[in-house]
From TrEMBL:
Belongs to the Skp family. Pfam families: OmpH. GO terms for molecular function: unfolded protein binding. The keyword NADP does not apply. One of its GO terms (cellular component) is cytosol. Residues 48-82 form a coiled coil. The keyword rRNA-binding does not apply. Keywords: Coiled coil, Signal. PANTHER family: CHAPERONE PROTEIN SKP (PTHR35089:SF1). It comes from Mariniradius saccharolyticus AK6. This is Outer membrane protein H. Gene3D superfamilies: Skp domain. GO terms for biological process: protein stabilization.
């Protein structure tokens, strides 16, 4: 009876180890370069052009505000000797308020969650969705377990070009790489 238990214990250990020691199936990994894909996509150029135009408009407005402030300072300096202390302080207060308005404008437009950032997000979202859907299809078709983005930062030190699936994503999007 004791021998039988020992034999069963040994058999179960051997079977258990057999399950754990089976070779793991090879996992397929790949990478893409999202910057490369974006730059090849024709819609990205349109988005960039629209953002550039908006940015130039907003920068011009910001420069106009700065120029107005400089002119206000120049006028104050030129008329300084003719102004009473009270008039000088009034003009200085007006200049300070204009400076605050310029700073507020720059923050509202170009700040962390400013209009430029929001517009960029709004314009890029549909394109990013298209690219993500193409990436999803490429991964499923090629049985990839993990796909890295080379453009996302210094996450990969070495990449073998055999595993670059950027061309497949461009193909999935119907874009020829020239």
């Amino acid at each position: 009876m004791m021998e039988r238990r020992i034999i069963l214990l040994i058999l179960s250990l051997i079977l258990g180890l057999g399950i754990w020691t089976q070779p793991a199936q090879a996992q397929k990994f790949g990478y893409i370069d999202s910057e490369f894909i974006l730059n090849k996509h024709p819609d990205y150029k349109l988005v960039q052009d629209e953002l550039t135009n908006l940015s130039n408009e907003w920068k011009k407005e910001a420069q106009d505000l700065e120029q107005a402030i400089k002119e206000m300072y120049a006028n104050l300096k030129a008329e300084e000797v003719l102004l009473t202390e009270e008039m000088y302080q009034e003009r200085m207060t007006a200049i300070k308020e204009k400076e605050k308005a310029a700073i507020a404008y720059n923050n509202r437009v170009f700040g962390l969650n400013g209009q430029y950032y929001q517009k960029q997000k709004e314009l890029l979202q549909p394109l990013q969705s298209k690219i993500y859907d193409a990436i999803d299809r490429v991964c499923k078709r090629n049985n990839l377990v993990v796909l890295f983005d080379k453009a996302a930062g210094p996450l990969m030190i070495y990449t073998d070009p055999r595993h670059d699936y950027s061309e497949f994503v461009l193909e999935e999007l119907g874009i020829e790489n020239k």
